[in-house]
């Protein structure tokens, strides 16, 4: 019997956009039921790194690094901001020469002109930035987590999670195609919704929401992430006393090592 080698995971980025209201809230979307991955699930904005993201790396006038110089890390951050804009309309960018993130009315103008064209591949992200004179605020992103889909799963991702404080006046909205709803919710509300069946939340999403909820304010979440060491999580699928379990590194900071779940909770 020939054993197939594991599928190579696709490099991707995910954004946890945060805002402070009475509680800290995170922006999330409900995936369309007919999407082939995470259908119907409540997810963060994100997606695969595109070749055009790597092209932007070679054009440093299009982004502010915040001290990051590694090309791979820059491409991940660019992908996170691009995917967030495509999926929510929220744009973490500044006018060239300005220290301020663009206001909601400016972001809305860019969204109206470019969001659909960008999603449909009729314009590149670099072309949009050049046309509008905008500079990506990569310096706003704080690494939060790194997860790789288990080797036994047929569709795999190598996903880097980032935190960022959302601009106060940019509210965001789902695209109506890949996602059919969007919410701002506290980590506690997301977990309650998952427990009572209102939300479908995949295993990595639940673990990262739980980890995020250890902090109560956006400032604390960002500062804690800055001081933390990212430990890669590659869940190991085990059978424990006849039950399916997922084992992750305890040092990754998710409050445990073994979590009982079935594979459907991590892939679809």
SSE order and pairing:
Layout: E1 10-20, E2 24-31, E3 42-43, E4 46-48, H1 51-57, E5 63-64, H2 71-88, E6 93-95, H3 104-119, H4 125-132, E7 134-137, E8 142-148, E9 157-165, E10 179-185, H5 187-195, H6 203-212, H7 218-227, E11 236-240, E12 243-247, E13 258-260, H8 264-267
Parallel strand pairs: 1-9, 5-7
Antiparallel strand pairs: 1-2, 1-4, 2-3, 2-10, 6-7, 8-9, 11-12, 12-13
Helix pairs in contact: 1-2, 5-6
Structure description:
With 268 residues, this protein is of the alpha+beta class. The protein has 8 helices and 13 strands. The strands form 3 sheets. Strands 1, 2, 3, 4, 8, 9 and 10 form a 7-stranded mixed beta sheet that branches. A 3-stranded mixed beta sheet has the order 5-7-6. The chain is globular, with a radius of gyration of 18 Å. The model is unreliable at 34-38 (pLDDT under 50).
In summary, what is this structure?
With about 270 residues, the chain is an alpha+beta fold.
């Amino acid at each position: 019997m020939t054993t197939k080698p594991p599928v190579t995971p696709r490099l991707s980025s995910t954004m946890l956009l945060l805002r402070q209201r009475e509680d800290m809230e995170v922006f999330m979307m409900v995936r369309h039921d007919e999407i082939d991955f995470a259908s119907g699930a409540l997810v963060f904005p994100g997606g695969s790194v595109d070749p055009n993201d790597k092209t932007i790396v070679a054009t440093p006038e299009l982004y502010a690094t915040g001290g990051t110089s590694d090309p791979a890390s820059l491409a991940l951050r660019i992908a996170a901001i691009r995917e967030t804009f495509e999926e929510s309309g929220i744009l973490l960018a500044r006018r060239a020469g300005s220290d301020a993130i663009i206001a909601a009315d400016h972001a809305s103008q860019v969204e109206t002109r470019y969001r659909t064209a960008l999603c449909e591949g009729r314009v590149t992200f670099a072309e949009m930035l050049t046309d509008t004179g905008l500079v990506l605020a990569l310096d706003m992103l704080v690494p939060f987590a790194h997860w790789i889909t288990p080797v036994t799963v047929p569709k795999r991702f190598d996903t880097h999670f980032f935190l960022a404080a959302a601009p106060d006046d940019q509210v965001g909205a789902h695209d109506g195609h890949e996602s059919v709803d969007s919410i701002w919710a506290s980590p506690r509300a997301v977990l309650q919704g998952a427990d009572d069946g209102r939300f479908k939340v995949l295993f990595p999403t639940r673990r990262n929401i739980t980890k995020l909820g250890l902090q109560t304010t956006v400032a604390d979440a960002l500062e804690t992430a800055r001081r933390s060491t990212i430990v890669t999580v590659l869940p190991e699928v085990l059978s424990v006393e006849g039950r399916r379990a997922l084992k992750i590194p305890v040092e990754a900071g998710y409050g445990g090592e073994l979590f009982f779940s079935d594979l459907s909770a991590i892939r679809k």
